[in-house]
Amino acid sequence: MTIKDLAQKTGYAVGTVSRALNGHPNVSPKARTIILQAAKESGFQLNTNAKQLKQTHSNAILVVVKGVGNELFSEMLETIQRCVAQTRYQLLVDYMDEDMSEVARAVRLCRERKPLGVIFLGGSNQNFNKDFSAIDIPCVVVTNNASTLPFANLSSVTTDDREVARQAIETMIALGHRRIAVIGGDPTISDTSRLRLEGCMDAFRAHGLPFDTARDYRAGRYSWHNGYEAAQDLIRSGSRFTAIFAAADVMAVGAIRALWENGLRVPRDVSVMGVDGLPLGSYLVPQLATVIQDGTALAKRGVEILLRSIEEGTPACHETVPFRIARRESLRRIQAQGET
Amino acid sequence: MTIKDLAQKTGYAVGTVSRALNGHPNVSPKARTIILQAAKESGFQLNTNAKQLKQTHSNAILVVVKGVGNELFSEMLETIQRCVAQTRYQLLVDYMDEDMSEVARAVRLCRERKPLGVIFLGGSNQNFNKDFSAIDIPCVVVTNNASTLPFANLSSVTTDDREVARQAIETMIALGHRRIAVIGGDPTISDTSRLRLEGCMDAFRAHGLPFDTARDYRAGRYSWHNGYEAAQDLIRSGSRFTAIFAAADVMAVGAIRALWENGLRVPRDVSVMGVDGLPLGSYLVPQLATVIQDGTALAKRGVEILLRSIEEGTPACHETVPFRIARRESLRRIQAQGET
DNA sequence: TTGTAGGCGTTATCAT
DNA sequence: ATGATAACGCCTACAA
C-alpha cells in the first residue's frame, strides 16, 4: 500500500494524494476528503524512510530518554508531551538503555530524522565531549548541567545538585543530627554525584562538623542493592551515625533494609533521607524523606528554552529550577549529642 | 557525502562501494581495502533511510517493549541481548509507552525495517486482533498468552497466570488464612488480570471458602497508588480479612502502606503477598512475599522459539515457564479461624 | 486545483 | 569482480 495505490484507488494523481496527506494547501476540500477517507479505510501509512529520504528537514523535536525505568523521566516526558502538543511541532521520542551513548544516538537520529531540536533527558558530559560536535541544531540537556561544556548550541536545565545535598544535610543537622553518613554515586565518574557530595561537605564545613569520606561516605551505582551494600559496609565498619543521607531514593530504600537487618529502626535509631522524590517514597513505611526534584518545572523550562532557541535563535543558557525538601517519616528529631 | 562521492573518490562504481561497505562477497580484497579506507577517512556514514527504503530484508530481530519502566522487561531484555549476541542476527529494540498499540507500531517497523522476526514484551490481545494480520513473519509474545489468537505465525511464552494466583492463594490458605482480600487489575480489560482473578477463585472454591468479588476484590491499574486506594477501600468497607493478595507487587506496596495507616501491621495483623518478583521486594521492610516470574526463562524460550521459527519454519507454539513462590516476611502463619 | 516527472541515497539485478 | 541502471516510496517543482 503506497501513495500510488491510493492515487489509483481515488483516481487522483500521486502529487495530489501526497499534498492531501500532508495537509498542504492547493487541494480541493473534496479531493482531501476522498483521499483521507480512502487512506483511513485502507489503513494506509506513510513510509517514513521514503519520506525522510527526500525531506531536508522535519518539524519534529527529538527527545532522547536515557534510562528506561526512570520514574522522573516518565513524569517529565508527560509534561513535554503536553507542552509540545500546543505547538505546531511534533514529538519524536527515543528511549534507550543506560549503556549506550545518548549523544551518538542523537547524532544518528539527527541525520536521519532531521529534527529542529533535541531534548536530552539524562546524559553524561563525557559523551557530549566525545560526539556532540556533530550536532548543530539547538539542544537542551535536562537534569544534567552542561554549562562547562564548550558548545554554543547546548543549553541545560537542572536542579542545583550541590544545593540539594547541602540543604538535605542542613535539614538533618537542624533536627539535631551531628554524625551523618552519606551514600551516593562515584564522584569521580558522575558530575551529579560529585556535586551532591560537595554539597554535603559544604554543609558539614559550615557547621564545623567532621566528615571523612573514607569513614563516612560509600559509593555505588544508584540501585536498591548498592544502597543496601553501602549501608551494610558503613555499619560493619563500626562507624557511628544517627542519620544516613542517600544521594538517591533507591539507595535510601536499600539502606533502610540494611539498617533493619542490623537491628536499627528508622527513624527511631537512624534517620534516613534520599533524593529524587520517587512516587514510591510516599508509599513506604516509613515514608521516605527526600528532596523532590520538580520534574514538571524541569521539563517545562527545557521545552521553553529549546523553542526559543529554535524560533528566535537565542543563545544557549544554563538554568536551575527550584526543588522541595520533603520532611517525612524517615526523619526524626534527636537530642543533639556532642560529636565524637 | 554519499556512496557516489566515495565511488568517485576511489574510482570504483557505486555498486562495488555498496558491496564493500556491506561486507558482501564478490569484492576483491584490494577494492575492499581501498573503499573501507576512504570511507573511514572521510567519515562516511550510510544513509539509513535510503538503505531501508531499498532493502528487501535485514537480518534484524525486532523487540517491541511495551511499558517503559517495567523492571521485568528490563531483565528479559538483557537476556534477549545475550542470547541474540551469540547468533548472526542483530537486535533492534523499540521501547514504547503503555498507551500506544504495540502491534500497530510493529506493523510499521516491519514495513520499514524488514526484520526477520518480532518479540513482543508485553502486549494486549485486543491490539493483536485489530492489527496483527498485517504481519506475516514469525513473532512471539512474551508474558502474554496468545494461544487463543487466530494467527499461525504468532507464538507465546508466558507464566501460567491462573496457576500463579491459585498457588499464591493456596500458600496463604496453608498458613491458616481463610479470609483473603484480593486486589488486581480490571478482569474485563486485561487477560492477565482475568486469569489471576480466576486462579484465586479456583483456590477458594477448592477449599470451600467464600469469595465475593464485590466484597473481596478491588481493581485498578498496577501502580503504588491504586494498590493503596484499593486497600483503603477494602478497609473502609468494613470487610474482614487476615491477608491481602495483590496481583502485582507495586499494588502490594501501596496496600501495605494503606494497612499501616489504618493501624494494621504487616504481617502481624495482615499478611500480604504480591506477584512479579520485583527486585525492590527483597529490600522492603518487611520483605514482600511474591510469586517470582522467571524473566530469564521467559526471555530465553522466547528467543529460542523465534529463532526456530525463523530458521526451520516450525509452526507457532504456546508455552509456559515455571515460576517460584517466594515466602517472605510479609507472610505470617495464623491460627485458622472459622470463617464468618 | 491537479497531473507529471525527476530525484533523494541506497541496494539489487543485470550485463560485462 | 565490477559497472551500469532500475527500482524503493515519497516530495516537490513545474507544467497543464
Description of the molecule:
The structure is a homodimer of 340-residue chains. With 340 residues, the first copy, chain A, is of the alpha/beta class. The first copy, chain A, has three domains: 51 residues, lambda repressor-like DNA-binding domains (434 Repressor (Amino-terminal Domain)), CATH 1.10.260; 128 residues, Rossmann fold; 134 residues, Rossmann fold (3-Layer(aba) Sandwich). In chain A, 44% of the residues lie in helices and 18% in strands. Chain A has 13 helices and twelve strands. In chain A, strands 2-1-3-4-5-11 form a six-stranded parallel β-sheet, with helices on both faces. In chain A, strands 7-6-8-9-10-12 form a six-stranded mixed β-sheet, with helices on both faces. In chain A, helix 1 crosses helix 3. At the A-B interface, helix 4, helix 6, helix 11 and helix 12 of A face helix 4, helix 5, strand 2, helix 6 and helix 11 of B. Chain B binds a DNA duplex (16 and 16 nucleotides) through helix 2 and helix 4.
